[in-house]
Every structure is written in structure tokens, then in C-alpha cells.
Write a structure and sequence with these properties.
Length: 116
């Protein structure tokens, strides 16, 4: 055998240094991915709350616009939304927590304040 064939070594597998470098790179990539996912998850609740607030406002506006419009001076509103007969009655309406047209609290919407 020649000397050339004796000294030639073929590498099989990876060295410890290469393995550590690969783990560091994968770890950094996973940390960046987890960080961006955290930001996306935090922001994903905002659109849902926004859509819910829009739905509440739309429900109140639908109720109000179905009432008559007076062309004269508005009278003080009668007590209770079930007795509201025209648009003027809703002026200054304040609900702590969304309520239905009968004045009953809507479950799960206590955190919303409605001001007309």
C-alpha cells in the first residue's frame, strides 16, 4: 500500500463543535419564532374585542333608529328603555355593561360601557 492511502481519512458523522453550532442556530431561530408568535397572540384579542364593541353599538343604533323622530323640543325621557318612544329619549343614556332593550344585563358584556 502506498502512503497516500494510509493517511487519507474519510469523515463520517459530525464533530462536537459542529453539533453545538447547529444547536445554537436552531435555538436562536426558535427563540425568534416564539417571540413573534407571542406578539401575534397578544394582538389577536384586540380585533375580537373591537368587533364585539361594534356589534353592541350596532344593536343600540338599530334600536334607536327604529323609534320616531320628534321635530319639536325633546321632552325628558320616561323611566326605563321599554318606555322610550322617540329618538330624543335616548339622549344621555348611559349603561354600565351592555343591556338589552328591556334593560336586562347581557351576560358576558359587563365590561362594556354604553353612552348615547
Amino acid at each position: 500500500m502506498s502512503m497516500k492511502h494510509k493517511t487519507a481519512h474519510f469523515q463520517q458523522g459530525v464533530t462536537l463543535v459542529e453539533l453545538i453550532i447547529a444547536l445554537v442556530i436552531i435555538g436562536a431561530a426558535l427563540a425568534g419564532l416564539a417571540s413573534s408568535m407571542n406578539v401575534m397572540v397578544r394582538r389577536s384579542a384586540d380585533p375580537a374585542l373591537h368587533q364585539q364593541a361594534i356589534a353592541i353599538a350596532t344593536a343600540y343604533m338599530n334600536e334607536i333608529t327604529q323609534k320616531a323622530v320628534t321635530t319639536t323640543n325633546c321632552k325628558p325621557p320616561t323611566v326605563g328603555r321599554t318606555n322610550f318612544s322617540d329618538v330624543c329619549d335616548y339622549d344621555g343614556l348611559t349603561n354600565n355593561g351592555a343591556k338589552n332593550q328591556f334593560g336586562q344585563a347581557i351576560s358576558g358584556l359587563e365590561g362594556y360601557d354604553v353612552v348615547v
